[in-house]
Amino acid sequence: IYVCKSSLEATKMDPLKKPALYVGDIDMNELDLQQPPTSGEDYIKRVVLEAKQYADVVVADIDPEHLRTPTIDIEPLPGCVEAPPLLSPTIEWQQRQVVDFSDLRLYVGQLKDQIQTSKHKWKSQQISLPSIDDRCGWITYCCEKRSDDDEIYSPTLKIMFHMNQPLVEQVLEYLVELVQTQGKIEYRLGQWLYALLVVLELPLNPDMCSCLRSLARACSVIRANSKKLEEHEIGALNLFICLVARYFRQMDLADP
User: Fold this and answer.
1) For residues 250 and 209, is the Cβ–Cβ distance under 8 A?
2) Mode of pairing for the β-strands spanning 2-3 and 21-22
3) Do 176 and 168 form a contact (C-beta atoms < 8 A)?
4) pLDDT of residue 83
5) Alpha carbons 55 and 36: distance in angstroms, whole number
6) Aminoacyl-tRNA synthetase among the record's keywords (predicted)?
7) CA angle 200, 206, 208 (to 5 degrees)
8) For residue range 163-187, what is the model confidence (pLDDT) as tens digits?
9) What is the predicted pLDDT for the residue at 81?
10) Given a cut of 60, is residue 74 above it in pLDDT?
11) Residue 182: CA count within 13 A, CB half-sphere
12) 3-state SS of the chain?
């Protein structure tokens, strides 16, 4: 930002190099570079002299022999598997699902805001939820019965509103891993996946983006490999692929 008179002439045509302060001519006989600067002007003149020693553009001279060859091959994750004939949803069906899902998210979000801002706070019964680190506990809570006396909990709004966002994301990861392991989406598991997607906040963090993409890929693999699928099972698989791709903007995974 500081320049002497001679440098000013060379750079006056370049607006990006226009000096902020003019320091005048520099007399080398007046500067003792062996001594520390005695004033602000003296310091600036030394800066100008040092800058003159460098070219406007500097290119690093790198010896390729000193560069290490990467030892790990990173392969990009594959996209969704193409749907078999007659199982791929129409674009109209996909658009309808996105609209319905968006409307539901908007309704639930407004309801939650009203509860939080209401003068009369919503008071519900205490709900006992598994710990955020209890993977088996959550899978049992959502999908399994250990005995006839155990209850499988549906993903009601009362439960959803008791779950903070870190818990929503963690449980979603547990259930997506379950889909990948089981190779199927049973009815109650599908209910929970859908409900968690409804309350999942945007924008997605990288972990959640990866999780949703894994869900869509797993659904596409199940759809492609399963030889006997009921109509409601096909609908669930297509629905999750559609929502991940078209609502959560992972368009490379979308069915055409």
Assistant:
1) yes
2) parallel
3) no
4) 87
5) 25
6) no
7) 30
8) 999 999 999 999 999 999 999 999 9
9) 87
10) no
11) 16
12) CEECHHHHHHHCCCHHHCCCEECCCCCHHHCCCCCCCCCHHHHHHHHHHHHHCCCCCCCCCCCHHHCCCCCCCCCCCCCCCCCCCCCCCCHHHHHHHHHHHHHHHHHHHHHHHHHHHCCCCCCCCCCCCCCCCCHHHHHHHHHCCCCCCCCCCCCCHHHHCCCCHHHHHHHHHHHHHHHHHHCCCCHHHHHHHHHHHHHCCCCCCHHHHHHHHHHHHHHHHHHHHCCCCCHHHHHHHHHHHHHHHHHCCCHHHCCC
Q: How many beta carbons lie within 10 A of that of residue 212, not counting itself?
A: 24
Scored b (16 or more CB within 10 A) or e, 132-148 reads beebeebbbbbbeeeee
Check whether 12 has a pLDDT greater than 70.
no
Structure tokens at 35: 């001594």
Inter-residue contact 49 to 26 (CB < 8 Å): yes
Read off the pLDDT of residues 190-213 as tens digits, 9 standing for 90 and up: 999 999 999 999 999 999 999 999
pLDDT at 88 over 60: yes
Residue 73, amino acid = D
